């Protein structure tokens, strides 16, 4: 399921036109392309979090300003194929990382604002996060009357 997240996103937006990809429901809301770019940003953070926790148990979570990352990288001007390729590459590499973990490593925890979060929680959280944004993509497409 983790590895399939990239296919889910790719399949959902493969027939979306360039205009539909950059349409924003409101100035402060994300376009479909910006949502995809956010998934790459989130994958960067996820990649560091899981490695830090496995290597440095009890480490603090790295935090980031997600809206600022999307806006400051001018994600809407980027190429959707590049975004999807990056998401696919990072997800594949992380899937291989997860496959090598021992049972004990799956239980290792980091600190998110005083709350303990395990590698197992992060693994499932990543999948849920993609599902949430798939729904967001669908809402944009519905609003556009797209397929
Ligand atoms: Ni998100």
UniProtKB/TrEMBL annotation:
Gene3D superfamilies noted in UniProt: dinb family like domain (1.20.120.450)
Positions of the DinB-like domain: 5-137
A Pfam family per the record: DinB_2
Database matches in InterPro entries: DinB-like, DinB/YfiT-like
Name this protein carries in UniProt: DinB-like domain-containing protein
Protein species of origin: Paenibacillus pectinilyticus
Source taxonomy: Bacteria, Bacillati, Bacillota, Bacilli, Bacillales
